[in-house]
Amino acid sequence: MYLLLIRHGETDWNTERRIQGNTDTPLNATGLAQAERLAARLAADTKIDALYTSPLARARVTADMIAQKCGITATQDDRLKEKSLGDLEGLTLAEFEQHYPDLHRGWLNSVEHFPLPNEETPAQLRERIETFLADLRARHLNGTRVGVVSHGGTIGMFVSMLIGLETNQRSPFWFDNASITVVDLSGSRPRIRLLNDTCHLNGK
Prior knowledge:
Number of domains: 1
Number of helices: 7
Radius of gyration: 17 Å
Strand order of the largest sheet: 3-2-4-1-5-6
Strand content: 15-25%
Number of strands: 6
Structural class: alpha/beta
CATH class: Alpha Beta
Distance between the termini: 27 Å
CATH superfamily: Phosphoglycerate mutase-like
């Protein structure tokens, strides 16, 4: 199975550097344009056999545009939601630093997970991703190309888990809006074929 991990297009909260987490925010005009270019690329270059999406609007609308271009149906799955960030959701990074200076300092400098108030833990996030992957492997034959439209933190956990990083190790990866990451799961070990690719947004 080839896993295509796709991050949703841009939202206003992305441009405002506001912490989104599980908050359901829509795509902005730029995000809709990004999703359109992303969908066109996937329809032209990549055969997708199945498509799954987080039900949050920014991912769901991105997935719906891909599904329409590729002639498939997007299946919503709650396990693909972004990691909940608890009390910090809705704050800008500047407000986070202002209101929680000690917490912000620890979060900024820690190489391992730094607990935030009322957040979803890395173990909880990993558990829902593991169950989702187990369902995919049971449902789809080897060689199937499966698209997953999700969020930066969730995709980060997908990749970290697949390459064997510890659950509490903070992800070293960044995933841009409307990016594509491809992981080959057909062999004895996962192999990353593409990482955070956004060339379709530059007209290349």
